[in-house]
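Course assignment 3, question 2. Fill in each field.
Student: A.L.
Task: Predict the tertiary structure for the chain below.
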Amino acid sequence: MSEQSNISGHMPAPPSAKEWVSVLAKYREPNAMRSSFELAVTLGPFVALWAAAWLALDVSYWLTLAISIVNAAFLLRLFIIQHDCGHGSFYNNRTLSDWLGRILGVLTLTPYDVWRRTHSIHHSSHGNLERRGIGDVHTMTVAEYKALSRWSKLMYRVYRHPVILFGLGPGYLFLVQNRIPLGLMSSVRYWASAMGTNAAILAGLLIMLYFGGLMPILLIFLPSTLLAATAGVWLFYVQHQFETTCWEGEEDWQLHDAALHGSSHYVLPPVLQWLSGNIGIHHVHHLYSRIPFYRLPEVVRDHAKLAELNRMTIRESFANARLHLWDEGSRRLLSFRQARSL
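Answer field:
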């Protein structure tokens, strides 16, 4: 697609969300060597830092903790690779992608097959007010909230409070909720995924306990896991919870429009963008999830209109933590205070 002015000097009309799909199709093919390189430069440092943190237990617990905190960033990046495996965008070989995803799911405490299904539901229903509940941050409309009892309002406010969403929530999600296939309880396949992952995690913890006692668990496993989980939940939150996001009723909802306009472009410094696997370029990812994470920067380099759409800086993103209710009238995500003034 050319973004140059036409002969008359007018810029061409920007493509619709659906038209962008055909434009983005050329970026979808993964490169096996590049994917393997990305895996190596993520898994290699992760293992090395784990070993360094273990050795540091004999030197200083504070040093061990510091190394574990750094390693959380590589654990987060491993989750992004697992995420691409789930979309079939890391390797063309589906079997290879799935088994790599299952192995990484043990490290990220995420049963791969369960997550892949719930994440697929998220992609296919995001922004649809009638299909909320799986793979998303629960968001109510202003009208729904005002119709609640006082107790239900309090429970929703507690749920949306930053201390819960970004403090207690990530640990609960990865340490507790992921242990059973919530939302898919009737399927043997998803129980097998959850229980198989649980068994592998338990075996790993028992090995740590046998060779190192409690300290490797308390100072390496838990800090890196919880910090990576918190960063991951924050990223997921700001990718969809911003003032001008997109929610529609079933009759008006359009998949491609919701993907493009209901997802942010989280602009991060280069180091953080690399460690987060470019997932901040989320509007492009949602519109065409088969694009490998390492090719997302190509898209925004080649298409200025996409680069400027839904841009959000780190500073701007912090304000989104106070937005809780979707107002169907103004088509904005509002704070509780703003909702009261309507």
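Instructor remarks: Residues 334 and 342 are 10 Å apart (CA to CA). The radius of gyration is 21 Å.
Grade: pending
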